[in-house]
Inverse folding.
């Protein structure tokens, strides 16, 4: 091998490895962003009144949900569906929260068949004070929902104070959602 061939070989190996290295860096960046991102996204509705709505109950239940139900107390609104696998993940925590009786929990059932929604609640528990059936998804769109589940904290005046996208876990419930609830309850004097 001549003296000039060795630098060419090294240069060729370097050029061959460059796409692999670039791909690895991009992949590492995506991985870091996926697992180190904030699961709260700013919503243009934060601080604004909840959209006007009046949803009927799920067929087979007594009470629907409307804007008027969300005034006068701090509350949580959870948008869910029976076909939503992540909704199943957070349901035990919602039931636990409801058992504590710390805050009213309301539900918006998104584009669900009544019998499947009721079956979901029978199977996993029903933490909701009232549930509105958003059969066509229009109310959820007005709330800015784009993925299930989504959870909102509503202040006593009926304004959206906080939005959590995706299923919450114990950490996000205790460190993100409930501190907002408690701060609002203290401010409302309840």
């Amino acid at each position: 091998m001549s003296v000039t061939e060795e630098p060419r070989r090294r240069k060729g190996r370097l050029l061959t490895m460059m796409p692999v290295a670039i791909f690895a860096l991009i992949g590492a960046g995506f991985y870091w962003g996926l697992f180190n991102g904030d699961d709260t996204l700013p919503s243009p509705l934060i601080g604004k009144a909840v959209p006007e709505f009046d949803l009927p109950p799920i067929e087979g239940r007594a009470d629907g949900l409307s804007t008027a139900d969300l005034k006068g107390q701090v509350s949580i609104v959870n948008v869910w569906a029976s076909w939503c696998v992540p909704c199943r993940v957070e349901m035990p925590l919602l039931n636990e929260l409801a058992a504590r009786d710390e805050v009213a929990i309301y539900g918006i059932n998104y584009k669900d068949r009544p019998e499947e929604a009721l079956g979901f609640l029978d199977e996993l528990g029903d933490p909701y004070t009232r549930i509105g059936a958003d059969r066509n998804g229009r109310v959820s769109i007005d709330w800015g929902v784009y993925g299930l589940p989504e959870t909102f904290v509503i202040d006593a005046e009926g304004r959206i104070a906080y939005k959590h996208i995706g299923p919450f876990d114990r950490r996000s419930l205790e460190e993100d959602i409930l501190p907002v609830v408690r701060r609002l309850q203290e401010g409302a004097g309840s």
In short: The two ends are 85 Å apart (CA to CA).
